[in-house]
Design brief:
- The protein has helices at 2-13, 15-34, 48-53, 57-65, 81-96, 98-104, 108-139, 148-176, 181-192, 194-206, 211-234, 272-291, 297-306, 313-334, 337-346, 358-391, 396-399, 404-427; strands at 236-243, 245-248, 251-254, 260-265, 349-350.
- The two termini are 34 Å apart.
- The longest helix is centred in the C-terminal third of the chain and has 34 residues, at 358-391.
- 32% of the residues are buried.
- The strands form 2 sheets. It has a 3-stranded antiparallel beta sheet with strand order 4-1-5. A two-stranded antiparallel ribbon has the order 2-3.
- The protein has 2 domains: 1-192, Preprotein translocase SecY subunit (Orthogonal Bundle); 194-402, SecY subunit domain (Preprotein translocase SecY subunit, Orthogonal Bundle).
- Helix content is 68%, strand content 5%.
Length: 447
């Protein structure tokens, strides 16, 4: 405890770090306040059906990511998710469009151009999603106090402006605050639902005979799952690299003194495979709902039921298989072993026992494939754990924290933010957050 208090004092003593943390907390507070501001013209007494709809399935996940703003018909109901969708589209386009590929290799100037394209695409996606959200409001019986035409126009404009504002807040946090702003906004939205879910689970267990013992077991299981998630995010396979001659800090090293490592992450894809799989899982169901008719209606009804039940066998089996496949796919996009081998060769480095160039690329690709398999299986297990938690009797909202996208995003964002704080402390010659002064974390955002 004394060490923790000393660390807090050290953080507060660094003026720049203190200002960044306070700015970040202030902007996050503004985001949370905006999540409770209802769209103009909405009768708040008619939101009951919408809130009931947002308790499970895809809608429940979206509501969790927006911190309840979706179910509250808030001006930030779409949250930052259109920006995430735009970022994914840009990453996928980077595989096929030479212009995007060129921007990705141009450094800071290319990054600014891609950010501007992502912002414009975000506005387009938001304007496409906003009418769907408003239509859902009307379908759920949400009453407007203004004319339907005025309500549609105001809602689309305000929802688009709300997403742009959330995107601006995220970018300001990244530039002026601490941590990755977009990821922090998502994490705050997820955590906002935790207290209510925790209390609901506690009350339900108290009402049962011997429920407190079961609740303690649930909390212990949750802590174990969190530890396993941290292990998955942190796990790396270190490939030894040796340089024939290397100059560092004015000193020249040769032989073993110049040995370093290439850290290949066991889960290089992060949470993206889960996001891709969840998006695709709902496409067949949506298509069947609008196209099934006649003799095929009975079969379509079975498929819709099977792949809409997040506690069902077929849903979770297909979900897990798709996560494993997407993990390999996204890892292949993110990690370019040919480029890594070429950079090593250009800098005079080599993997001991492996010829530089093509042989090194093949070796790295083989190692990456081997470590991705257990990583993808572990990721798939974490993704379907909430279903098992629901089957075990845990309420739906609290069960989401036992795995899946929510837990991995929280773990990744917390590690990223702690890593930045750790760097500030060590650069100012203070003790780090950990006893050994080293905190392994990811140098990229959660997405």
């Amino acid at each position: 405890m004394k060490r923790f208090i000393d660390t807090i004092k050290n953080i507060w003593a660094i003026t720049e770090l203190r200002e960044k943390i306070l700015l970040t907390l202030g902007l996050l507070l503004i985001y949370r306040l905006g999540s409770n501001v209802v769209l103009p013209g909405v009768d708040t007494d008619s939101l009951g059906n919408l809130q009931s709809q947002s308790e499970g399935g895809l809608i429940g996940i979206l509501n969790a990511f927006t911190g309840g703003a979706f179910a509250n018909a808030s001006i930030l109901a779409l949250g930052i998710m259109p920006y995430i969708s735009a970022s994914i589209v840009i990453q996928l386009l980077g595989m096929a469009v030479p212009t995007i590929q060129k921007m990705q290799k141009e450094g800071e100037s290319g990054r600014r151009k891609l950010n501007q394209i992502t912002r414009i695409l975000t506005i387009g996606i938001t304007m496409a999603q906003a009418p769907g959200y408003v239509a859902n409001l009307r379908a759920q019986g949400v009453v407007s106090t203004v004319s339907p035409e005025m309500f549609w126009t105001l809602s689309i404009i305000v929802l688009t402006a709300g997403t742009i504002f959330a995107m601006w807040l995220g970018e300001r946090i990244t530039d002026k605050g601490i941590g990755n702003g977009i990821s922090l906004l998502i994490m705050v939205g997820i955590i906002a639902t935790l207290p209510q879910a925790f209390l609901q689970e506690l009350v339900s267990k108290i009402d049962q005979g011997g429920g407190m013992v079961l609740f303690v077991v649930e909390i212990a299981a949750l802590l174990i799952v969190i530890l396993l998630s941290v292990a998955l995010v942190q796990a790396v396979r270190r490939i030894p690299v040796q340089y024939a001659k290397r100059t560092t800090g004015g000193r020249t090293f040769t032989g073993n003194m110049a040995r370093q490592y290439i850290p290949l992450k066991v889960n290089a894809a992060g949470v993206m495979p889960i996001i891709f799989a969840q998006a695709i899982m709902f496409i067949p169901v949506t298509v069947l709902q609008y196209t099934a008719s006649g003799e095929g209606a009975e079969s379509a009804s079975w498929l819709i039921t099977a792949f809409s039940d997040i506690q069902g066998f077929w849903y979770n089996f297909l979900f897990a298989v798709m996560i494993i496949l997407f993990t390999y796919f996204y890892t292949a996009i993110q990690v370019n072993t040919n480029q890594m081998a070429e950079d090593l060769k250009r800098n005079g480095g080599f993997v001991p026992g492996i010829k530089p160039g093509k042989s090194t690329a093949e070796f790295l690709d083989t190692v990456l494939s081997r470590i991705t398999l257990p990583g993808s299986i572990f990721l798939a297990i974490l993704a379907i754990l909430p279903a098992f938690a629901m089957i075990a009797g845990i309420n739906t909202q609290f069960a989401y924290f036992y795995g899946g996208t929510s837990l991995l995003i929280m773990v990744g964002v917390v590690l990223d933010t702690l890593q930045q704080i750790e760097s500030y402390l060590l650069n100012r010659h203070y003790d780090g957050l950990m006893k050994n002064g080293k905190l392994k974390g990811r140098a990229v955002s959660a997405f």
